[in-house]
């Protein structure tokens, strides 16, 4: 598994500083710590060393650098033990070496933690980096007054030899590295020309990169996706090139080794579910403003606001061009990882024993999303290969293929279009009814991901996906994730009015959503509530929802202040209150006191919907509701507060309610007496 907490990639050219005004002891101790970090950066096993630093250039450069740092470590340790005071020139030298070793540590981390493809792409720059740092080391050692240091002759000689060798060192690039990179580029060029890559050459290249299995390829993909996160300051060309490499790896993984090697945790959900920690109070800053779930991959958009990557990506893919929180125009679609917040969330989870790895990391096919002709053609070739295998695949292979399609469908609108156009939907629908629970889960989530792209909604509905999705939603033989993602898919489809009307004609759909609303996780219940909202927006469905018992279920969600679904439930009730059946059911449930309480204690959105419901009841039910409102001692102060501090819509509704009460029941003098 890739290190999801890996920080933004820093390059050796970044501005690095020595410790500010250090004492001699702290400076030397810091140098010893840096040297040890560098020496232990490489795996102890030589074979693993060769495999982890794929480029021979960097293996040789890293080995040479480690040998130099070992000599420096001997110097630092002797200085620590025998030289409590240092001359100004020695302090200056050590400060310069501190900067050099910081750069070496960063460069070594790049070499040992990076994707093999990235190492090939960057082989020349990395080699130049090792050479530049070696020269800086030599320059720093030139000003070191060895005669003033109380160190052994052996260390003195080794340091002097190191300085001479470092000064003479030349850039080293193994001839095989540029050759292998040219072969990789040739494969990508074939794909861009819409040609199937030469399988023998593809296998040879993958072998040279030590990508000898599906699991090797999957780990490489994870690391490439880390490169995208680390390269957010890089040029668009570099990000696109990394995306092309990831697409090539995914294609090669499928055609050479099959859709295998996926781990269960790689596709097990998108966000941490708060149902797993409902007893905990999650800090508001840790919640996504869109989904209200704990963020696992927070990103900053152009307006400066932070969202969960998957949530804001869905928002932008849906055609929205404004920031959900601030309302400002989103000037570009670049998502900048909020590494500081991510570290805080991870530390909070670690302190409380919450396992983030149990949910699907937001990378795995999601962060590498910039489309290029090469990546789109590679995706097309990959999808076509998978779909050719699917009809005759074994049960296990079906599960893996569905999982691959699920991951591919997470990678942005262009990928979703490619997958749907290739005819994936009709082949995925039968998998919704297979006995294997994991296959069902992959298939329903793939359809959910595809439905995010608006033109795919028609393809999905025309292919006959509605009834199978409802079956999954209502089934007791599938997983909770499958049921919840089925509800999310129905919610996505119900954005189209005709499909919302169609869902209303399916009694099982309404019953299944109401059941999930009562028994699902917080995320599943929120998707169910959102789907019910869209279904109720079609006026012909409101009586059906009321008849199915929606009002009673929704009112139960308003009572606990910490239910997490008050806003969603109140929004659906506000729509149902637009029908006579809805108003009658609300009154029969004696909901007016609860709605009045919401005017005082709920969120701005909840107050807005609560006053809208009370306005509808007062207009159509009349005096009994008005009398009940006026008998509540908190009603008028809450209404007054809403008139002054509510949202624009809430103020309009509150003003209309006040005028209606005046007309029907009260004089202005009586009203003033109630304030």
TrEMBL record:
Record-annotated U-box domain positions: 281-355
Please indicate if the UniProt record lists Cell cycle as a keyword.
no
Q: Name one GO molecular function term.
A: ubiquitin protein ligase activity
Per UniProt, the enzyme's principal EC class comes to transferase
| Enzyme Commission numbers on file | 2.3.2.27
Please give a single GO biological process term from the UniProt record.
Answer: protein ubiquitination
Supply the Pfam families for this chain.
Answer: ARM_PUB, PUB10_N, U-box
Q: Catalyses which reaction?
A: S-ubiquitinyl-[E2 ubiquitin-conjugating enzyme]-L-cysteine + [acceptor protein]-L-lysine = [E2 ubiquitin-conjugating enzyme]-L-cysteine + N(6)-ubiquitinyl-[acceptor protein]-L-lysine
Lineage: superkingdom: Eukaryota
The annotated pathway is: Protein modification; protein ubiquitination
Q: Where are the ARM repeats?
A: 423-465
UniProt entry tagged with the keyword Repeat: yes
Keywords, ordered alphabetically: Repeat, Transferase, Ubl conjugation pathway
Listed PANTHER family:
U BOX DOMAIN-CONTAINING (PTHR23315), U-BOX DOMAIN-CONTAINING PROTEIN 1 (PTHR23315:SF224)
Q: What is this protein called?
A: RING-type E3 ubiquitin transferase
From what organism does this protein derive? Ceratopteris richardii
